[in-house]
């Protein structure tokens, strides 16, 4: 089921019977105009929530892949640009649950961050409870315009990144690929693949955004260490040996951060 709440936000419930047309749109024949017209899908929004993304089949995942990578979709013979800014946030069911599909490495790599959501705290859960049983829904007010987000992105890219920080970032990513070269030989048989070039790019961008949040105009090593787990945890593949020994990607990332020399 796919439903657009408004022009700026859309929630898409991914199910095994979801079709690519339900996501991006389709051509519909208009008897009045005697021609095919485009009906745009809920993907045409600034913020898209893909709920339970790994319950969708490969064709739907491929359609979302184009949208996330190219910021455009193809309907019939026409290509349409998606609105700017465009952001996809997805939830994922545990792979052990019934009715889930493993996400391709190429698609997972499109996501900048992977954040682990634990159970809410008691006070947070009480707040959720109150909101859900209230007679009237919470009133939502706009706090920022799309133009403000675009400008904030531009400012983030202008934040200074020293060459020593660049070397620090590349060392972290390369250590996930070639652990033996970085005094991490014990992980040589634990990692099936390391961070991609997107890991390097997103580690730098996320660190700049973190520095922006901290009201700094430059990136420091602590910014890299703060965002590295979320940037890398879905970009490091584990071997069967690692799974047999209960080694997690978090352990590998922490060991890399503790081993690579901080500039």
Keywords summarizing the entry:
single chain; 263 residues; alpha/beta; four-stranded mixed β-sheet; two-stranded antiparallel sheet; 10 strands; 40% helix; globular
Q: Largest sheet, described in full?
A: 4 strands, mixed
Strand order of the largest sheet: 1-2-5-8
Q: Termini, distance in Å? A: 49 Å
What is the SS-derived class?
Answer: alpha/beta
Total helical segments: 10
Describe the secondary structure blueprint for this structure:
Elements: E1 2-4, E2 9-13, H1 20-24, E3 25-30, E4 35-40, E5 47-51, H2 58-70, E6 72-75, E7 78-81, E8 87-90, H3 105-108, H4 122-133, H5 146-157, H6 163-177, E9 191-193, H7 197-213, H8 221-232, E10 237-238, H9 240-244, H10 249-259
Parallel strand pairs: 2-5, 5-8
Antiparallel strand pairs: 1-2, 3-4, 6-7, 9-10
Describe the structure.
The protein has 263 residues and is α/β, with parallel strands linked by helices. Helix content is 40%, strand content 16%. It has 10 helices and 10 strands. A hairpin with a 2-residue loop joins β6 and β7 (78-81). The N and C termini lie far apart (49 Å). Mean pLDDT is 86; it is low at 1-6.
